Amino acid sequence: MNIVVDYGNSSAKVGIFDQHALVDHYAFTDPGELRTYLENFSADHLIVSAVTQDAHTVSSWAKQAKKKFILDETLPLPVKNNYATPQTLGFDRIAGVCGAQTMFPASNC
Questions:
Q1: pTM for the whole thing?
Q2: Three-class SS string for the chain?
Q3: What is the pLDDT of residue 95?
């Protein structure tokens, strides 16, 4: 199982994936509830995108995740980011581009 955390302005959205299939999802408005959830979830991989929380802190809550990743401008991606200031490109847009590339390879998206 893999877990994706998108920590936005008003809530943290969590998706649970088995390979490429979304099998469950949650939304947390309380950071303590998200922390408790992540502390008790065992995952092969975790990726965190965070706007209002430190992504490394959120990642540290997932003590049982085997591999952890932070979605930021330094993460190797299947696309080239030619944005003039890559550190300011929204993580939601980066994730969307990567998802489109995966779903529609070799196509203009």
A1: 0.85
A2: CEEEEEECCCCEEEEEEECCEEEEEEEECCHHHHHHHHHCCCEEEEEEEECCCCHHHHHHHCCCEEEEEECCCCCCCCCCCCCCCHHHCCHHHHHHHHHHHHHCCCCCC
A3: 86
